[in-house]
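Handout for the seminar on molecular recognition.
Each group receives one record of this type.
Step one: identify the two inputs.
Step two: read the structure output and locate the region that could contact adenosine-5'-diphosphate.
Step three: write two sentences on what you found, then compare them with the reference statements printed after the record.
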Amino acid sequence: MTEFGNTALANLKQYFGYDSFKPGQGKIINTILDEKRDVLAIMPTGAGKSICYQIPAIMLPGITIVISPLISLMQDQVKSLNAAGIHAAYINSSLTDSQITKALEMAKSGTYKIIYVAPERLDNWEFTNFADSAEISMVTVDEAHCISQWGQDFRPSYLNIVKFVERLPKRPIVSAFTATATEEVKRDIECVLKLQNPGVFVTGFDRENLYFSVEHIKNKDDYIRKYVKDHSNESGIIYCATRKNVDAVFEMLTLDGVPVVRYHAGLDNEYRKNSQNDFIFDRKPVIVATNAFGMGIDKSNVRYVIHYNMPQSMENYYQEAGRAGRDGENSQCILLFSAQDIMINKFLLEKRISARWILRMKISSDSGILSALR
Ligand code: ADP
Ligand code: MG
């Protein structure tokens, strides 16, 4: 164990209350701190990616900028970091101009170790001006698959990251994290971000506590009603391909008296936020949702994830099903199969491609391609 390693462990205990690293964490932290090298880490949802950059951020001399695609994710992370005694802030479109100016002033005076920003911010004059005069030790790209046009969550403003890094007075360490990366996406992340001799880490995708099954059944509704009833004390996610399906399954379960909420992009922000919170805090332990729901959600006791329709790709499936059993307890991942779903997915994929082109021209705020698409 290196000197860095020991201090990293002490910080893990002091700030996060954990006694040991999860697989991969120690090596990644060591590569950043000891070897001062770029890092690309592909680790499944729940593997503990945040700590891989938060601990180095505490220990590096200057500031770490974390680029994150979702405002709600940033807010949650910043809240828990500050609660743990780590000074962090976020800068995104949820703040007023004067709040941003104030935050940047505080950042300049060295108040924060970690600053979360939406990728759109990297273009902003006030922000780059700040970055020029600050000591930036590391730039971290969370959900790094958003940089790839091959990936389904492509976010055009992620392409600005490299320009931002290159114009800094001193090149910081660049670390990139994602749960899902095919070879193409992985190559894209390395190339587009211009990672320099990065340490590449791919940690185990085996989740021993997850039981996968595919059910080919005639009546999905009856199956879902019975399953939810038989598991009435458990928390679960039911993914549907379309908003219409979400509404129908939600209404069916509501009529059955199930404490259930729904989530899709056709519902307004407030409604979605309430759904998400009711689910996370177990007031309503069952959620019916499109794949708009879930990125960055940290709910440990999800006992089942049922796909009412076929997911759009293996990566999607892994990410969505992987939200079950993050606490390590046995959990079920059930895929309900019907031939009709293949048609639905074909339609969605075609629609997505054209929608992407329109969005590519329009996106200029922090609002997010994801919510716009789903
Ligand atoms: P990811 O971003 O990879 O999906 P997170 O960073 O959100 O994962 O972490 C998932 C969960 O694992 C969190 O609840 C986090 O507190 C917990 N965790 C992270 N590192 C450790 C560790 N070394 N020991 C125990 N729990 C950990
Ligand atoms: Mg994460």
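Reference statements: The longest strand covers residues 210-216. The domain at 210-344 is CATH 3.40.50.300 (Rossmann fold).
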